[in-house]
């Protein structure tokens, strides 16, 4: 089994300037976090208080190695707090985030302390990332 995980630390946040494509274990695109703040999921976005990732998920973990969010093999995004609604702006306040930004501003992020999602564009569910 292939493990797809992202482990970010407070002192080493991940910043992607051109967006990020997440692939499943079959090398198929299942999620896209774009540089304009749009998120395209092959599946759906949902919030539950304890995201338990299935095998082969792309896992977002905090500095204590606890899962706070994941994208599964079918392209579903699970977040532990907040909601799946867009925001006017995304201003991360700490360095423990998965961040997508363009040349001008942060356009989406997942807070790795609590699994909160922020993005300024559109969320396309059941799409083609």
Question: What are the defining features of this structure?
Answer:
four-stranded mixed β-sheet; 39% strand; globular; five-stranded mixed β-sheet; mainly beta; 129 residues
What's the helix and strand layout?
Layout: E1 4-7, E2 14-16, E3 20-23, E4 29-33, E5 39-41, E6 45-47, E7 58-61, E8 67-71, E9 77-79, E10 97-101, E11 106-111, E12 117-119, E13 123-124
Parallel strand pairs: 1-7, 2-10, 5-13, 6-9
Antiparallel strand pairs: 3-4, 4-5, 7-8, 8-9, 10-11, 11-12
Brief summary of the model shown:
This protein has 129 residues and is mainly beta.
- SS class: mainly beta
Unreliable runs: 1-17
Q: List how many beta strands DSSP finds.
A: 13
Distance between the termini: 23 Å
Kindly provide the radius of gyration, computed on alpha-carbon positions and rounded to a whole number of angstroms.
13 Å
Order of helices and strands: EEEEEEEEEEEEE
| Strand line-up in the sheet with most strands | 1-7-8-9-6
The helix fraction, in percent, is under 10%
- Average per-residue pLDDT, rounded, comes to 81
Biggest β-sheet description: 5 strands, mixed
User: What form results from the Cα inertia axes?
Assistant: globular
Number of helices, where a helix is a run of at least 4 consecutive DSSP H or I residues? 0
For the record, the count of structural domains works out to 1
């Amino acid at each position: 089994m292939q493990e797809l995980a992202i482990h970010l630390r407070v002192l080493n946040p991940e910043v992607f300037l051109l967006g990020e494509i997440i692939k499943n274990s079959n090398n198929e695109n299942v999620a896209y976090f774009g540089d304009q703040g749009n998120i395209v999921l092959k599946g759906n976005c949902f919030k539950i208080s304890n995201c338990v990732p299935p095998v082969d998920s792309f896992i977002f973990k905090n500095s204590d190695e606890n899962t706070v969010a994941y994208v599964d093999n079918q392209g579903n995004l699970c977040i532990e707090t907040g909601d799946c609604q867009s925001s006017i702006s995304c201003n991360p306040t700490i360095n423990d985030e998965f961040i997508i930004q363009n040349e001008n501003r942060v356009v989406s992020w997942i807070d790795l302390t609590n699994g909160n999602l922020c993005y300024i564009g559109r969320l396309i569910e059941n799409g083609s990332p």
